[in-house]
Structures are given as structure tokens and as C-alpha cells.
Amino acid sequence: MKAVPRTRTRSLPGLLLALLVIALTAFAPRATAATGVSTIADALRKSPVYVDPAAAAQLSTAEADTLARQIKNANKPLFIAVLPTGYPTQDLFTDLRTATGVTGLYAVRLGDRFDARADSSVLPRTAVRNLVTSVQGETASTQLTDFTNRALTNLGGKAPASWGGGSADGSGVSSTALIAIGAVIVAGGAGAYTLVRRNRRRHQEEQRAALDRLRVVVDEDITAFGEELDRLDFHPAEPRADDAMRADYERALNAYDQAKQYMADARRPEDVRSVTQALEDGRFSLAQLAARREGRPLPERRPPCFFDPRHGPSVTDATWTPAGGSPREVPVCAADATRLADGRDPAIREVDTDHGRRPYWDAGPAYGPWAGGYFGGGLLPGLLIGTALGGWMSAPAYAADYGTGYGDFDTGGYQGGDLSGADFDPGDFGDFGGGGGDFGGGGGDSGDFGGGF
Questions:
Q1: Burial 89-108 (b: 16+ CB within 10 A, else e)
Q2: Which of 88, 107, 329, 370 could make an S-S bridge to 116, C-beta 3.0–4.6 Å?
Q3: What's the predicted TM-score (pTM) here?
């Protein structure tokens, strides 16, 4: 007779241990992976504001919609992502820019931290850094609103086509309403035409007065540059002169002649931009000539000294705080860098105003085009945040009155909103906290890679 096999039974301690493991596995909190960069990028290609589900408490849906509507209506390539504390920051901006593939300004609120990066074709690094610094320490809603308001004023380019066109709220106007509006316009046409002509004459008179005031300052600049050329101890035929030196010298002379001609042809304040741009080009040519003659490395192309462009090209950036404003980095010449380091005041360019001599940034909106020729590429508005001229530039009427002479944007490469994919300068997009704001541990500047915090 066959023996019946015994059924193996689990001992009570072993059974309890197995049940305990199952229970712990079932009820233990699961680790949730951070939202992928690709997911964030997909969302930003559809709308300018993305709020991660894990960071929803920072910015309400209504607040996010308001920001998105404002950015779309401004038609500017500004992208905002609100992410939770602890989100991985290594190469965050570079990866996000690559995945989105759109040229623009990228801002990230990460927990209670904030930083931003931009393609230099839409906003220079110094301007980005100053904008970020100006909103540090604010609540999420206030910070993102303030940053958006200031950034849209300075930002170049247009919104990506993937956001869609038309009104953000989708509202329309009926044909009946259009007919009624047309009847009102026709009825008041004669009076409106008279008013337009009167306003146009007044505007032209104001522009002529502004140009006359600018002419005094520009003539001083042209004279100062001519004196530099007169003092220059160089002759193209001297034994040590080579072709490169002669080319530098010729460019400087041509810049001087161009500046005089541009000023003679100027009819509006914004025409002055080409004059000061020519002078800046000439001074850089002289800096190159001096380096060649002294056997030094050629200087990099930098903006002129912020405090007085007649000081020549800047050699470094220094921290400066305007009266009643916040600290910001400005380009300075060697002499002003030394003055600031010693706790002394820089040598500031002052101009005549109705209230006496004032720094050019406090002298009136007409000086925007003059300064814009020296500080082009959109750099100037970021430097002037919190000053009188910066405030005027932020007003909607400024461009209508004085043109865009204070800072056109680089016309090379992809412009804001263009689909460029991975074709962008990685030097514009460094690690989170690498220079845009003060996060206590982010070394380097906005062009650094690797190292994270």
C-alpha cells in the first residue's frame, strides 16, 4: 500500500513573516519619479506656463492661466515652469531648452527657488541675471508676475506658432456690432482727422526738441573720439605697423567719419542710435590696435563702460546699486572698477536737464536711443531696471515716441519663437542656480555646465 504524501505546511512564524512583507509592500508609500523633461517640454510647446502636479500649491490654475494669457497677448517667447522642491537640477535648463527646441527665455520656479536662462538672441545674459535678481525672495505668484511683467518689456522675438494665434480668450465681434462701430467712426471722422493732425504736429515738435537736446551730448561724444584719434601715437607707415594694425586704424577713422555723417542726417531721436553705435565700433578698433602694438592678446568684444561710454570698452562686470534701486552687474572700465572696489563713486556721465546736471539714466526718455547705440542687443533695459530711464522704457508709449533705438536684438541665428531644436549656444544655458540668482551654492555664471548646485 502506497504511503500518502504529506502536505508541507508553512510554520506559523514563517507565515507571519510572509504576511508582514506583503503588507509592508502593499501599504508603503511608492516613490514617484519626477516629471520628465520631455513631458514639460511638450506642455510648453502648447502653452507658455507649465505647473507640475506636485507643485500645484505654488500657483493656482487661475494664476497660471492669467500668466499664460499675458504672455500670449504680448506675443513673446517666454516659457515658465513651476516644479516641486527636489526636482533634479543637473543640466535642467540645457535639457529643457533642447527638448522644447524653441528659442526664447526659460524661467523655472523650483520649490521656493527661482532662476532663468535665455538664448542670447532674445535677451543677453546680463539682462537675465538682473531680472532674476530683482525678483528674489518673493512668493511664487508675485515673483512670476513681476518677472513676467519686466521680462516682456525687454524680450526680443515672437511667440512660437505652436501656441496658436488670435485672442487668448477666443472672444469675437459680431457683424452687427462692426456695422455700428463703422457708423460711429464715419460720423466722427472729420473731428478725428483734425485731432490726429494736431497731435502729429505736437509729436513732431516734441521729437525735434528731444533731438536738439541729444545733439549736444552726441557732439560731445564725437569730439571726444576725435581727440582720441588726434592723441594716438600711430602712423600707418611706421616700421612696426602691419596690415592688421592699419586695418584697425582705418576702421577707427571710418567710424569717426560715419558718426559725423549719421548725426548730420539725423531727423528723429532714434536716429542717434547709429551715431553712438559707430563711435562704439571705433573705440573697439582702437582697443584692438593698442593690444596689437603692445603685444597683448586681442580684447574680447564687450559693452562700453556703463558709467560713461567715452571711457571705452569695459574690462569686467561690477556690482552697482542705483539710488533707490536693487544691486545689479554692470560693465565697467578698469578705472571705474578700481573706484568701486575702493568704495568710491564711479566717474558718471552727466547731461543737462531742466533740473540741472543729472546722470544720463535719470535725464529723460530721449536718451534711450543715445544709450542704445552703445548698449545694443537688448542689454540696456536689464541694466536700467529701477532707474528713471528704465521706467520710461517699460511704458507702452516709449517705443511709439522714441522707436526701438534703445536696444534692437541680434539679427543673426534663430530669433525668439523659432524652432531650432538642439541648434543653440549651450553657453547661454547653465545649471540651475549657476548665476541667475543667489541660491547659496551655485558657483560660476550662467554659462557654466556640470556640477549642479
A1: bebbbbbbbbbbbbbbbbbb
A2: 107
A3: 0.49
